[in-house]
Amino acid sequence: MSVPERLLLGSGPSPVPRRVLDALAQPTIGHLDPVFAEIMDRCRARLRDVLLTSNDVTLPISGTGSAGMEAMVVNFVRPGDRVVCGVNGLFGQRMADELGRNGADVVVVEGEWGRAIPTERLLEAVDDRTAALFVVHGETSTGVRQPLDGLADACRAVDALLLVDCVTSLAGAPIAIDAEGVDVAFSGTQKCLNAPPGLAPLTVGPRALERLRPGRSWYFDLTLLLGYWTPGEAARAYHHTAPINLVYALDEALAIVLEEGLPERWERHADAHEELLDELRELGFERLAPEGEQLASLLCVRVPEGIDEAAVRRALLLRHDIEISGGLGPLAGRVWRIGVMGEGARPEARERLVEALRAELA
Ligand SMILES: *Cc1c(COP(=O)(O)O)cnc(C)c1O
């Protein structure tokens, strides 16, 4: 069965440019081949540039964004650790679940779905028994951006780690790992990086590295993974077979981001978000996130009364080849989540969506 060309404007995956698909389709070579080793090194260097970090330990974990989450937890959270976890949407909930399954003493700081969690509330929960503070930088279930200001200082003051999910913000909204004092962060390839799903960029700073011990997971054990991903005299040690072609794709996707430049890319996302919101307002939609708390790369809007949201989404997909996403959890049936991610943050994408939507709502 042939696969249709869809315009992916949902919560991910996002549109994958031809250049990235072409990179993916290059010949598969061995995971210990010296040519692949060069690609691995280049990919890691590009990842550092996109994450704005000098962290040596910056690599793509094999698996989707959630694999990055799991790698973070199994390597840096030990059973009994007190971990403060901000929860104002599905991805915060998921992390609280993950932490609990790994034996952490989870202190949930609950926030309203559709709002950022006030920084003071997070800081109140961080005390000298705290091992780590976790926040979702870009909450894809609500389209909210969590400010990181002040979090790193508070963590350092009590010797806790700052852990961040930047799956949907990376390369779509400003985040600077080193400047913002983030100790460990994970992302995904299929949001603003515009690569296919299957890898989870992970970066680890020096404060976190001091705590790294062989953990409970064999597959995600960073001490083993670094034996493969770290260049040097020693031969790269086989751990698991890297998803070779996905690494080609990520490497190319990162090159595209760097060619554009991060400030330019962030601005383009912010502008595309505003322009789409203006058009949707004319059709009666309102953004869930208040001004100043929005995540540029994901526009979550309330669906006006009287619209059968599921039927319209289905028509957009099947009649117009455009995918957008519905709501999750308490927002199911009440909102749409529209991805403004990379190639999806272009005027042509907005025009196609708005035109199709006007036709379906008429
Ligand atoms: C998509 C996403 C994830 C999970 O990534 P998968 O690739 O679906 O495993 C985690 N956190 C956030 C904020 C996301 O948007």
Describe the structure.
The protein is α/β, with parallel strands linked by helices. It has 2 domains: 7-13 and 262-361, Aspartate Aminotransferase, domain 1, CATH 3.90.1150; 18-259, 3-Layer(aba) Sandwich (Aspartate Aminotransferase, domain 2), CATH 3.40.640.10. Helix content is 39%, strand content 17%. The chain has 12 helices and 15 strands. A 7-stranded mixed β-sheet has the order 2-10-9-8-5-3-4, with helices on both faces. Strands 11-12-15-14 form a 4-stranded antiparallel β-sheet, with helices on one face. Strands 1-13 form a two-stranded parallel sheet. Helix 1 packs antiparallel against helix 9 and helix 2 packs across helix 9 (244-260). It is globular and about 65 Å long. The relative contact order is 0.18. The mean pLDDT is 97. The structure holds pyridoxal-5'-phosphate. The site of pyridoxal-5'-phosphate has 14 residues, from helix 3. The site of pyridoxal-5'-phosphate (PLP) has 14 residues, from helix 3.
